[in-house]
Design goal:
By secondary structure, this protein is mainly β. It has 3 domains: 34 residues, no CATH class; 85 residues, no CATH class; 102 residues, Mannose-Binding Protein A, Chain A, CATH 3.10.100. The chain is built from 3 helices and 18 strands. The strands form 5 sheets. A 7-stranded mixed β-sheet has the order 1-2-5-6-9-8-3, with no helix packed on it. It has a 4-stranded antiparallel β-sheet with strand order 10-11-18-13. A 3-stranded antiparallel β-sheet has the order 14-15-16, with no helix packed on it. A hairpin with a 4-residue loop joins β10 and β11. The chain is elongated and about 80 Å long. It starts with 53 loop residues before the first helix and ends with a strand. The relative contact order is 0.11.
Length: 260
């Protein structure tokens, strides 16, 4: 039911209706009392064009989304449901598991969209964890996490300085290209030579697998088609190894993570 209210100089307009009210002119509430300058009885919004109450706005319940499934693509459901993606769309949700690297969400069945850090990089270890609310905003073609910069080492990393952490355990043995991708997919990176030596010196007693095998670092020597490996016998052990994808050129991966 639509009711058309004429533009009259009324001190107070009171409308009792069970349906939406359509006005062809601006509605002005002129009462001297604040408590009377309001519209009461608005229901919870169920349509994109519905008005919301002060309580709904304060609770920001329309920005809260629930995880309904998905692993490679997290399925999110809200109420009322979104009818499309738009710049500035704000979503809050609580992950059920920790996620790092490539993260995508599908909001109310509108299609998968990537989720990135505020600087456009992949989600870092420790940035999306179970039981901690994630707030993200949509822009252009993806969501960007807001206010969730990591200020401590993620699980499985040791703090070396105020600027970076190092992975406690060495991991798989692979080529330099796979090693770079392995760390990048976790929001981390291979350590530089300086970082490795510092971490080995400061946290050597806490690093598992130290000196068991050669480990990749993100540095190169003055040799063609080679990359550097370190740490086979001591902190400053170093050699160049071929960068070609071949088992004879493998090395162990231990990622570094920058926190500042």
């Amino acid at each position: 039911m639509n009711r058309l209210l004429p533009s009259l100089g009324l001190a107070l307009v009171s409308v009792c209706a069970l349906a939406q009210v359509h006005l062809d002119k601006p509605l002005r509430l002129l009462s001297q009392q604040d408590s009377l300058r309001q519209i009461d009885g608005l229901a919870y919004p169920s349509e994109p064009s519905s008005l919301i109450t002060l309580g709904t706005a304060q609770q920001a319940s329309t920005n809260w989304y629930t995880v309904t499934g998905g692993t490679s693509i997290v399925q999110l459901s809200g109420s009322p449901q979104a009818n499309g993606y738009a710049n500035g769309m704000l979503i809050r949700w609580m992950p059920q598991t920790a996620i790092a690297g490539s993260l995508k969400v599908n909001v109310d069945g509108q299609g998968a969209r990537g989720v990135y850090r505020s600087d456009g990089l992949l989600v870092s270890d420790g940035q999306v964890t179970a039981g901690q609310v994630v707030e993200m905003i949509y822009m252009d073609t993806a969501f960007f996490i807001m206010g969730r910069s990591v200020t401590d080492c993620p699980s499985g990393y040791l703090r070396v300085s105020d600027e970076f952490c190092i992975q406690q355990n060495d991991t798989l043995s692979v080529s330099i290209f796979t090693a770079l991708g392995h760390c990048f997919a976790r929001g981390a990176r291979l350590c530089t030579w300086d970082e490795y030596v510092m971490a080995c010196t400061v946290q050597g007693a806490q690093l598992s697998g130290l000196f068991d095998d050669w480990e990749w670092v993100d540095d190169t020597s003055d040799h063609t088609h080679t990359a550097d490996q370190v740490g086979r016998y001591e902190c400053r052990s170093q050699r160049s190894m071929g960068a070609a994808e071949h088992p004879n050129n493998y090395g162990v991966v231990r990622c570094c993570y920058r926190i500042r």
